[in-house]
Amino acid sequence: MPDYAITRDRVEEYFDRTATTAWARLTTDAKVSRIRQTVRAGRDRMRATMLARLPEDLTGMRVLDAGCGTGAMTVELAQRGAQVLAVDISPQLVRIAQDRLPDTLRGNVRFHAGDMTDEAHGAFDFVLAMDSMIYYTAPDIAAILARMAPRTDQAIVFTLAPRTALLMAFWGLGKLFPRSDRSPVMVPHALPALRAHVGSGLDRVARISSGFYISECLEYRP
Q: Cα(72)–Cα(191) distance, rounded to whole angstroms?
């Protein structure tokens, strides 16, 4: 996945060197701007939407939090009894997630800084990938799912940016900046076009719109 590797490395650099402090603040109860409040609220709603796709009791199940960020999803999965592997490409974010994890849940969670698709992670009952695939093209997403699916027993629940007029406008503006001067740009997707790459087993769950946060929850069953 050569294109995937290039984008993955840019995402790592962005979150490790540029956005760590802002991301850490956004994912707490700290005061933020009104725009970021809408993003925070949207992310909270999306996390709840994704978790609703899994059983309330995850005791005995192994779950991959693919792109764990600062660990909010990891905590909720562990509270349900899951054995969680929390992976993020950014070592800085992984350290924040480790620091925020309650001591009572440490026996349920293992952290790893690296590639979420690494086959060395082993097999899982579920994979959750919240906003960690939003920077990739349809062929890359198909390759990511193809790599994870043989090791996922039940479902891969993930988010993408839907192909709306607003997001397409942002995407177009982002492409005007020199690549070295801008953050990784999320790639909007239309579900029919994505299905052409991924194949059967891909379904839309819900779309969350909250100010500048517009995201779509999808589910892929191998």
A: 27
* Sites in the chain below the pLDDT cut of 70: 1-2, 16-30, 32, 164-184
Instruction: Take residue 182 and report the two structure tokens written for it.
Output: 């801008």
Which tokens is 120 given? 């060395």
The whole-number pLDDT of residue 173 equals 47
Q: Whole-structure pTM over 0.90, yes or no?
A: no
> C-alpha distances in angstroms, 199 versus 68, 135, 144?
26, 20, 13
**How many independent structural domains does the chain possess?**
1
Strand boundaries in the chain, DSSP class E: 62-66, 83-88, 109-113, 124-129, 152-162, 188-189, 202-210, 213-220
At 34 the pLDDT is: 74
User: What is the predicted pLDDT for the residue at 27?
Assistant: 66
**Cβ-based burial of 170 (10 A; exposed 0-12, middle 13-18, buried ≥19):** middle
Could you tell me the residue range of the domain that residue 148 belongs to? 2-220
Question: So what's the pLDDT on residue 177?
Answer: 41
What CATH number should be reported for the domain holding residue 119?
3.40.50.150
